[in-house]
Amino acid sequence: MKHKMKKPNVLILMSDEHRSDVLGYNHNKIIRTPILDKLSKEGCVFENAYTPSPICVPARQCLMSGQLPKTCHCDGSWMDLKPFYDTFAKRLTQHAYTTVCSGKLHHLGMDQMQGWMQRLSPDAMIYPKYFEGLVKEEYDKYSKKAVSEKKSNEAYVKEAGVKFGKYQKYDLDVCEKAKEFVQSYFKESDDSRKPLLLKVSFLQPHYPFFTDKEKFDYYYDKVEVYEDKLCDHPVLSQSQIEKPVNVSSGEIRSATATYYGMVETIDQYYGEILKAIEDEGQNLDDWVIIYLSDHGEMLGEHGIWEKARFYEASVKVPLIIKPPKYNSKGLRINKNVNLCDLYSTLCDLTNIPIPPNLDSRSLVPLMAGSSDWNNESVSQIKRGENYHVMIKIDDLKYQYYGEEIPEVLFDLKNDSAETINVIENPNFKNEVQIFRDRLSALGYGIKSDSKYVNAGYDCGVLVKRINNEMLYPEDSNPWMV
What we know:
Layout: E1 10-15, H1 34-42, E2 44-50, H2 56-65, H3 69-72, H4 88-94, E3 98-103, E4 118-119, H5 136-143, H6 153-159, E5 161-162, H7 166-185, E6 196-201, E7 210-211, H8 213-220, H9 249-279, E8 288-293, H10 312-315, E9 316-317, E10 319-322, E11 331-338, H11 341-349, H12 364-367, E12 376-383, E13 386-393, E14 396-400, E15 408-411, H13 429-441, E16 465-466, E17 469-470
Helix pairs in contact: 6-9, 7-9, 8-9
């Protein structure tokens, strides 16, 4: 009888609003992120990973469902997945994983688990529209926010500095609960223990910006404040803060330094969690370890703070995947990928069939060296009655803001600062038509496909071959149900 391999444990480390260039491994010489830098050398760095939506709630629903906002009907700021929706947590639970989350999930509906077996800490709130028919006492019970310090972007820039705020308290608790769970879980014998999917999700470095004095003092004189060159476009120029009219140069420097301090804090927490796992006798080489964020933060670039833009600072995200047992150390992949792709990738890495109808492509072939890839990434957001859509193909990034608003096309290869709109440049006439056709196929614009179902990536196919060998033997599937 052949020996059956156990499935790998999976650790997902997640942050909120972490722009991808505030990381040591992404050539930032100021930020101190030794834990994530080490992870980048042990796994694969995806240099062009994009969020399916540059705001918290839809980004996280899409991450869980492996579907773009239009596909899973979560294209607005306060839209939640339908109860009992098919999520990657549910998928792994069905295939005999123990699935546990500590920290922020940002589910606003009545289904606060979305496939997770256990949540170690609460977050946010249930949105009022999901309370129809409940008595007031029940509404009050569930509608309280666990953490809330949000203000206008001008106000939070001004107040940034040294403070141990609610978000800092929350993240400390998330870290401690995760470590306590690890210590408890691995006390069971290997034979009786199911494989584990553990997600640890922090609020930082999401605003409001607070950090401790040591980090604030360290970064204050070192940080490079981002250029605030404005873009003349009716959408891209909105919600801008001008200095010295709205805020001072010193206040912008303080906010930037504080943001850096928050990034360093979560890096330290990740180190504590990884150490807790190793202290229980676990070999991290056997684990799948993933780091990602839901979206970025403008941090004053183009005079804008927060997110909700298709600028790289807002829509590009850090993504590291360390697979178990095969050689991908230090690999840097520059293909355009999406957080939606995580669903299929998790299935692939754990030898679980990938369901159909996802907007999710397994990243395993890329990690195995394949160059065969649909080099596209899509991001969407609904603002009022208008749908905003970004489509990136190769180095070109197209943006649609409705029929009455000018389109945008950035050539990132020659304009990494995203200041020159080449939509009217005749040299890009053919490319613009390709983008417009793709926009229609995605169900947007005046020629939108009324029969849109999904992005058409032909998901649901098992792609587990690495150098023509199965990642796991076909008969080594003891957890399949």
